[in-house]
Amino acid sequence: MPVFTFSGKDAGGQKVAGERMAANKQVLAQQLRRERITPGAIREKGKEFAMPTFGSGKVKTKEIAIFFRQFSVMIDAGLPLVQCLEILAANQENQSFQKTLNGVRTTVEGGATLANAMRQYPKIFDDLTTNMMEAGETGGILDVILQRLATYVEKAVRLRSAVKSALIYPVAVVSMAVLIVGALLKFVVPIFANLFAGLGVTLPLPTRIVMGLSAFVQSFWWLFLVGGAGAVFGVKQMRKHPRGRYYFDKMLLHLPVMGSLLRKIAVGRFTRTLGTLITSGVPILEGLSITAKTSGNAVLEEALLKVRKAIEEGRTIVDPLRECGVFPNMVTQMIGVGEATGAMDSMLQKIADFYEEEVDAATRDMLAMLEPVIIALLGVSVGGIVIALYMPLFAMIAKLAG
């Protein structure tokens, strides 16, 4: 008989693992259940399913949202779990995601729960997803949990898209301005420099400054490339270390205009995530741990972990939230009301709705404010170079006319 490796939990909730001989996976799963062991992953030794080596970027968030929505409809229609996964995998155009779903289906067929099967693929299904799945399976409301997950992911995609679309215009304009100024200094200004050198005229200060900048660009253009690459590398290295990431994220939150927007995004994500988890039956301490990991901001993550520790010590959630200084007073007061009335989940969802609308408004305001500033900078930089180049010509024309 083949040998299988297995993992699971005993009656006391302790993790167990080992190897056993059995006719097949189903027989081994039945044996483990008779011993009051809840089976997790079961694999035939030497024929383990290879986890695909791909990054999370190969499976888009939008694809995961569609998967959750379709999955919930199938479960609600009464289709068996394994059949749902088989159908969804067969109709999945993304090959990486298809392999993942086939792997989940294989593990579920071996007797594992859906949550444990998904835990094999942390790059695709994070702690928030697997914990909500576990709560849904335990409470027999998997279809409802899947609908909530789909709504949560769709709102997260919408929020991210709104921010990206607001930043595309200013980034594009600034990039174009840098390219135009660089082209003028490298290719146009030297032509005028040769002209003025042949005429032997005295150049005004603005023209000399532009000539100096052009000479610097001609000789040391590579410094800009090295500096840009060094800045990107430095930021990446900084964010690899916990304290470096903390101070970098803290600096972002204190940026003018952008800092306020990032704070609103962080609060909206926190309230949406924690509200979704509590509504789905995940304990608040576990919910805070998951929310901290998925917050995307080291300052918020540290604050939420402090809040979790304070709650473990018997305190209410409001005081530690207020003490960390990250959340606005309105948020802490509304959460306090929700905690007092026993409706924290619905209160968190309302706060999330409010802040998502605030993010939309803030991105529009930021774009409206940045647009004239960027256009003015572009006009000043390009126009200043052109005027500086023509100033000696104007002086010569005036001298000749006189």
By oligomeric state, this entry counts as single chain
Mean pLDDT value? 81
Name of the CATH superfamily of the largest domain: Type II secretion system (T2SS), domain F
CATH topology of the largest domain: Receptor-associated Protein
Taken from the alpha-carbon principal axes, the silhouette is elongated
User: Which structural class is indicated by helix and strand composition?
Assistant: mainly alpha
The helix count comes to: 15
Q: Would you list the SSEs in sequence order as H and E? A: EEHEHHHHHHHHHHHHHH
Report the CATH architecture of the largest domain. Up-down Bundle
Q: In which range does the helix fraction lie?
A: over 70%
Q: Numbering strands along the chain, what is their spatial order in the largest sheet?
A: 2-1-3
Q: Give me the count of strands.
A: 3
Distance between the termini: 108 Å
Rg result:
30 Å
- Measured by DSSP, the beta-strand proportion falls in 5-15%
**Largest sheet properties:** 3 strands, antiparallel
